[in-house]
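Sequence in, structure out. Go.
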Amino acid sequence: MLQRCALLLIAFTTLAAAQVPPKVTYPPTPWPIKNGSFDIHHFRFGTGETLPDLHLHYLTLGTPRRDAQGHTTNAVLLLHGTGGNAHTLLNPVFSNVLFGPGQPLDITKYFLIFPDDIGMGESSKPSDGLRMKFPHYTYDDMVRSQHQMLVDGLHIDHLRLVIGTSMGCMQSFVWGEMYPKFMDALMPLACEPIAIAGRNRAWRYMAMKSIRDDPAWNNGNYSGEPVQGLRGAADMLLIAVSAPQQWRKDYPTRQQVKAFIDRTQDAIVTHSDADDFLYYFDASRDYNPEPKLSAITAYVTWVNSADDFINPPEIDDIFAEKLIHQVPHGRFVLIPASMQTYGHGTHTHAAVWKQYLIQLLQESAKQ
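Output:
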């Protein structure tokens, strides 16, 4: 969840691909970002719950372009992972590889849009005051709100590309099914287009259970964060986002491992809100794009890495080829584990998979 605070990790990142929570000042960036926001009045969630005003925050880079009919031609939606926010993909290992002159998402050519998802960043979330009375959102709700923000707020009627990491990867598949003609291409990074089950569901459940079992949580009505519950959740997260080869190189002794875990766990606890945490992990509860994959008409390049604990290659061996063949213009890429990969966080290290993005943009270009 963090890029600051002594390389704090949370949710679906590695140290170098970390993300920033709402309580932390965002790191400086050389990119000429513009802040924006859009409020949706009486947004209705899939559960039937509503908010009088759903506040959505976003960042943009570049300038939108339109064809002779007024349709947008260069908009790219970039979707962050669980616990992240609009600043997450400004991480240098992502942005410096993709956004500069002559690079695949050159901001002089593309209009890049980075939303804060519901429940994260500066968008509406439980910790704003409603706590456990906040509507129980899902990925479908996130995608529907993003679509409304684009169409009614930014007046974007077409996307050149949707690219997403981890949770954003899963949302990419939802986008392709929910709005199949809205984009030319999808690049999901580090996920599976199937229901979350088995070990992937288990570690998430254990992290959430650790918080709920802490008496200090008090059914979400705590005056101070449930520290012991958050520490248990942090342990689950650290294992899930671990990068075996990188961690062995960076922390080769028992003392170095202990120091790293202690400081990272402390930072996670200090900068997390337990109710927000529970909500954004629970948002995956009904995710399952598998039955409708054939509805995706955009060009798709789905990329996983072989050292990803959350999406291990054994699962890909069972499902990937079968699933991607259901997508008319789909390709699956499994990147072998190496000293260039970072476990689950390979999704943010764009140099590892940049070539596949270039190829996708070429293939999906309108003739």
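Check: DSSP finds ten helices and eight strands in the chain. Confidence is low (pLDDT under 50) at residues 1-23.
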